[in-house]
Amino acid sequence: MTAKHDLNRRDFLKLAAGASAAAALPSLHLAPSRAATPEQPNIIILVFDAFSARHISMYGYDRETTPNISRLAEKATVFHQHYAGGNFTFPGTSSLLTGTYPWTHRGFNPFMGVDPYFADHNLFSAFDQYYRQAYTHNSVADTLLKQMQASMDKLKPRQDLYLDKDFVSDILFSNDEDTATISWWQSVVKKGRKGTYSLFFSHFYRAYKEHILEKYADLYPRGLPNIRDDNFFLPEDANNWTLEQVADMPRPFLGYFHYLPPHDPYLTRADFVDAFKNDGFEPIKKPEHVFSRGRTYAELAYDRRWYDEYILLVDKEFGRMYTHLEETGALEDSILVLTSDHGEQFERGIEKHYHEGLHQPVVQVPLLIFQPGQTTRQDVTSATSAVDLLPTLLHLTGGNAPEWVEGEILPPYREQAPDPHRAIFTVEAKDSQQYGEINPGSFMILKDGYKLTYYTGWDRQKDHDPLIELYAIVDDPEEMNNLAAELPDVRDALLDELMARIEEANEKTGKA
User: Fold this and answer.
1) Which of 351, 342, 213 lies closest to 289, judged by CA?
2) CA-to-CA distance for 387 and 381, rounded, in angstroms?
3) Do 190 and 205 form a contact (C-beta atoms < 8 A)?
4) CA-angle at 16, arms to 12 and 22, nearest 5°
5) pLDDT digits (tens, 9 = 90+) for 419-437
6) Among the residues of 329-485, which ranges form H helices?
7) In whole angstroms, what is the distance from residue 85 CA to residue 424 CA?
8) Distance CA 323, CA 302 (A)
9) DSSP classification of residue 89
């Protein structure tokens, strides 16, 4: 395409709105300088969004989705039963960054945010002697990071690593992102997708979008990775930028890097398109759930394949990043963490993660920790939680967990043996009020090899309220046999413990 036909972002801004004066980006917060302790290891946390452990070949998935992670795991501590705090980005990431469960941090959805107490009681504030930097592609995770920004040295604006800055919410109306995004979606993106280009604005936006897609069509033939259909990005760009930051940040540092892949849309790179097409893999057929969206087995299997092929890209990029960090010596004095905020589901008539369910694919996530000098693999099969990462990292760097943390030091790093009867929790309450009674809600307790889920108040439950499911999760990881009726003693004991925690949480009125 010749230069005279290129519709760059500057031209588009002039044509569409004439709003160049509004193009200022949010300023970055720079915290005061602190006394450095160079002998402490750096911390590099890589979060791949919506990365389900149930789709990772290293954990036994029948498709070979993660050959690089499997190979590199021989130098890591691998956690096999690791659980997210929530089933979508905001509660899941909030638990990871605060070391508390959703009923404590109260981050049920991004519109309310976490309890203000955790704006300065979090992973970043706990490492106040470190240089702390964060980035995410994900607008929902970015909402949380902005709430915690005063505890960081640098929060990179998410749109800096997009190929096209979010024109309305980031440029024109940066202080009214939620409202602007909805309006932009309805008036421009949605209309453009349907072909009803009645607006002058939509004509130019369509040309702008198609120009970007055409430029990268060979590399991403299914379309460019994006957020809301108009925030295009190259996963490689964020990963390359991360490597640059690791090389340049003051020591010691804590870097939190939260990437969108393999979150939908599942638009993998050309190398991996159709890698699993006609491979003979057939997902287990499971009964339709009360929370079913009516998706058929064939539809879910098709979307699953695209998701698995996107995981191949995540695996390849992680392998590339690890190799670079190893070759440059960065891993000699750095702890590297690979994990996710939640998983993804393609079963029981339900897809993805923004729903009421707490089945294994959406709550079981990977966790690998690479320590400096580690050359042999360690496997941890006891149940662990995202709330455990914060106290563990403090322990590994010579610190102590603050009193507000609910997690524990992960085995094998703790001196005492883990409690064999410890309970792990996951909470979903996106439609609940922030304080007072959590309703509607989905609650999981995992203890002694059993997993109990308690659902209440959701519109889809109809005459199934409350709904209780009990699985012997070690022996039945696919959750095929609901034992709630067969094992009433186990069910009642777990339910009593869970309800006690819920009742305690319902009394919370906020810490701020």
Assistant:
1) 351
2) 17
3) no
4) 85
5) 899 999 999 999 999 999 9
6) 360-363, 389-396
7) 9
8) 32
9) H
